Amino acid sequence: MIFDVVIVGGGPAGFFAAIHCAQCALALSGTQPRVLIFEAGSQVLGKVRISGGGRCNVTHAAFDLQTFSGRYPRGSRELLGPLSRFGPRETFDWFERRGVKLKVESDRRVFPVSNKSQSIVDALVSEADRLGVQVETNCKVTDVAHEREGDQPLFRVDVAKRGHFSSRRLMLATGASQRALDWAQMLGDHRVVPLVPSLFSFTVCPERHAWLLELAGIAIPEAEVSFAEPSAQPASRATLNGPALKETGPLLISHSGITGPAVLALSAFGARVFCERKYRFTAQLNFIPSFGPFTEVMESWRKSSGRRLGILTRNPFMLPRRLWAALVTKVARIHSTQNYANLSAAEMKRLGDALTRCELHIVGRSPFKEEFVMAGGVDLRDVNMASCESKRVPGLYFGGEVLDVDGVTGGFNLQNAWTTGYCAGVAMGAAIAHPREAPLAK
């Protein structure tokens, strides 16, 4: 049997592509297409199952697409068009129409009301089954090849212990897989951007920052984390996110360093810079980014709070008490019995630096819980992003993280899967229904 479409990878991009391919082909031609998904694992949709701590962070409720696309360190510009066709609003509506009620949390992340990723998995599996998509698990694809049957191009897919399968169209939706990137190069000499880790926490030097590690578990609602480029090196390498490589958001002190949304976003935008430095660099923390000039706040506080108020008694920045004490005594080196009225100019300077320019020596990275994202993949210059079809090999499609697209934490990476899966699926479905017509372009 020759399949209309074979999809390698039973993750969110692969499932969404299969569903929309079958739906589109059936609507346009009245004939059910032969669509087959190969999944190497024993369960499909593994990344959906663990996303959001098992709750599944479906997408992010930032419905302005310019803002939304700006949260992709790589692929921001190229993904804007596809997002206009199937973006976060369409994702929200798609699942709700299939009985999965969604909710928007205070940080704009979107989850099923059930708080169970199984709700999302069941909706996808049910829809694929309804549309006749064939799903094979425990099927490890070992090789792919491009061949012909007469004047018709075919793809051959070799599966361990199962033999080979033929298809008129092939989609790679494997996630960030080096093997899939090797196939892309072999099939059409596609350009490939090397894979490097993204979305990771920062490990600090324990000898230099024992004071910080003693504060493990303390959360700061808003802090600014920036990459402090050594002055001897070109500043241009640190200008990947506007005027400087920096992010603002919640921060958490861990047993090995710092983590939380601000750190994860910085790790994503600086993934290649940090990799080049072998994860040894200086990060700078501003614990009070929204309080205005430090000196003005402190002078106002000193005038209004009583001249003999001890510096450790209260602080004007509403920082956690233990964090404030460590910054005052261990970073700014101010005696614990000092009061606000008697702070010297030198002490004020050291305290201001501790609060707004606290330098941390980063010596490594660590993965963030279930979030595992790689930067890199098939170069977007070789892909028509309107259809996610290769510009080099007709009939070859890509979706999800196999492309050089990755987002920050908060639902953006799953949205990339839904968006590229939709675009590839609709394009494949149209090509099945009208094989002699040119691929969709937009």
TrEMBL record:
Domain RsdA/BaiN/AoA(So)-like insert: 196-373
Pfam families: HI0933_like, HI0933_like_1st
Domain of life: Eukaryota
Keywords, alphabetical: FAD, Flavoprotein
Limits of the RsdA/BaiN/AoA(So)-like Rossmann fold-like domain: 4-426
Required cofactor names: FAD
Transmembrane spans: none
Name of the protein in its database record: Flavoprotein
Organism listed in the record: Cyanidioschyzon merolae (strain NIES-3377 / 10D)
